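Hello again, I could really use a second opinion on something today. For a while now I've been wondering how a particular protein folds. Please have a think about how the structure follows from the sequence. Here's the protein in full, and shout if anything looks odd to you:

***
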Amino acid sequence: MSTAATHGVLVTAGSSPLSQALARRLIDSPSVHAVVVVYQPGEALPTEQISGIQHVHADLTRRRDVQNLLQGVAHGAQLDSVVHACLRPDPRDHGSKVFRLNVESTRHLLAIAEEEPHITRFVLRSSHEVYRVERESPTLLDETQPLELSARTPQAARNHAEADLMVCARMGVSRLRIAVLRCADVLAPRVSSQLYDYLSSTICIRPLGYDPMVNVLSLPDAARALQLAAVSGAVGIYNIPGKDSLPLSELIHRAGRVGFPLPGPLLTPLYDLRAHLTRQRFSYSADRSRFHHGVILDGSKACAELAFRPELSVALPIHD
């Protein structure tokens, strides 16, 4: 470290607008002297050069690439913190690639960070999607809610929960100060938001007889939460809710879309057919429980320990 008062931060998932917004917030902070943003091989690096931000390629599914990243680039830039986002692909994907992107990348980063004395902080950007949501679930979910790991869950979502659980298991055991941020749906493009993909259609089909409450998080608030976690010493699991909670029907209306209720059993085949014909990413089966029962996160712990409160409403309507 150049001074005891400043931090250097490694940020993964560089092609995501959330990671890019986080990098800019970090480097504008007086407590951060350097940021390294990591992109998967083949992803284009930004042409804009910002002082203090370095952009690099690394295949996080390969242990040797992660070793080179943390032992070489991160050490040279005097980084002490890692902010990792699971590299979640299309929610309909399955197979070894999905497992490597979600689970193996997290395992490699966490294991090698523990071996590097200059790394002292590890933050995982997780999601509300890891929670098991059932009819009996409370309306307001705190961090003790069980995770969804059942075999009926689509692999991408299940692997995301596995990565979250793996990082949580190292708290209190690892020498690293570890925080897991389970964010509400960041309603923005290219941040793996199922709800944004759902609202990208002119007509949004919802299950007949259900109008669950949903909570949405603005991209600036999500970036601010991650920034606070990256430079703090807080250890634990933190729900990160958004400012806006509203019925699904109202969200559809405010997004400038048309809601159309149909019997629930029809929605999975209809959306699977649409995805096949249009290559859109939304998978109803991956989010079925939320479209019936809703998910609102209790953010009181993040407020108390990270000083995070959501401040900004999501910009609506959504424009194509």
User: Anything to note?
Assistant: The chain is about 35% helix and 20% strand. Residues 148 and 194 are 16 Å apart (CA to CA).
